[in-house]
Specification:
By secondary structure, the protein is an alpha/beta fold. The chain folds into three domains: 3-71, MurE/MurF, N-terminal domain (Udp-n-acetylmuramoylalanyl-d-glutamate--2,6- Diaminopimelate Ligase, Chain: A, domain 1, 3-Layer(aba) Sandwich); 90-290, UDP-N-acetylmuramoyl-L-alanine:D-glutamate ligase (3-Layer(aba) Sandwich); 299-421, Protein-Tyrosine Phosphatase, Chain A (Alpha-Beta Complex). 34% of the residues lie in helices and 23% in strands. It contains 16 helices and 19 strands. Strand 14 (299-303) and strand 15 form a beta hairpin. The protein is globular and about 70 Å long. The protein starts with a helix and ends in a 12-residue tail after the last strand.
Length: 422
Amino acid sequence: MKIEALHRLFLKCHSACTDTRKIEKDVMFFALKGAHFNGNVYAKKAIELGAKYALVDDPEYNTSSKTILVDNVLETLQKLATFHRQYLKTTIVALTGSNGKTTTKELIHSVLSQKYKTTATIGNLNNHIGVPLTLLSMTHTTEIGIVEMGANHQQEIAFLCAIAQPDYGYITNFGKAHLEGFKGVDGVIKGKSEMYDYLIANEKIIFVNATDSIQVTKTKKANTFTFGSLNEQVAISFIDANPFVSCRFNEYVIQSQLIGKYNFNNIAAAIAIGSYFKVNAKSIKQAIENYTPNNNRSQLLNKGSNKIILDAYNANPSSMEAALTNFEIQPGYKIAILGDMFELGKSAKKEHQHIVDLALSLNIDEVVFIGDNFYQTEINSLQAKQYKTLEDFKLAFVFSEINNAIILIKGSRGMALERILQ
């Protein structure tokens, strides 16, 4: 079936779905295959649960008038998403970066929603499956689509840009993330800059944080909209981060609910992009101040007399360093509980040791390191403890005697350190 004909069928559907556990009536089900599952097996169940159509790529499961046989379900999903994006002609703002992507995306969404009908990536569905699903979630009422793009190797961002065909783009930063796949920091810069390559080649507009020298250098030949210092198109100045970030924009002081100075650039980007799209300053202030972080990202929780900074959604050397330096300036008795950082490849030993050395050099009263990588580091301090697993930590560490402390919890997603809250 040609994409044009498939798209006509899709327009009769409620949405796209790849998981029978999330089936809603009249969706189009895409039977994806993975290393440990075959979505074709679930096509019949999807239809029984209410799917209008189910796409399969195995003739054995093409058993109904509601099943559609294609050569490759994943490739069809991606091609349909691009066709739908072209059909709608919706303005697309794309963003990527090593740290802060999802928070920045949520802030941009909050700001632009003050004036426009917007659709944004849900959670962190930012890969070769998530980006197409985001595009297919947009309708003729969507005025601006905000598409988050993640990557852990070269050519991935280029591929996602080819699918989404963004009109605007922003890269939050270039840090020590996914070093194993990108083969080092230079590889990270090259890989993330594939968004710049697409936008420059297609004469689109790039939002640039003028305080980031890499962003400035990489976009010299681009159409840019800059923000940061007083000399840029949008001036935004940092005020404080104790514990929440506040900043000044036009005549307004904006008091966010985000912890850590590292979130200032995320807020500034949302302000700048809102300004570009003519959202008034008062509405921008309201959108930023009303945004509340969730999903274990920079959340401030009160537990009795203790305060907990829960930042356990993910971690890499850059974000870990930023979290620790911000944590040091917080008042009170400070305890940092840090979990392993994943996908660092050959750099893992060096980067974990760097974080250990940094944490012990800062004004932090106690530091706990959890995970196999941290367990192998050298620690010469009475203020620090090492545990190979979270289970070992649970057995040995007792919080019942701690009062009036502030506790940082941060680690990679695979560590699931939010379990410590229990």
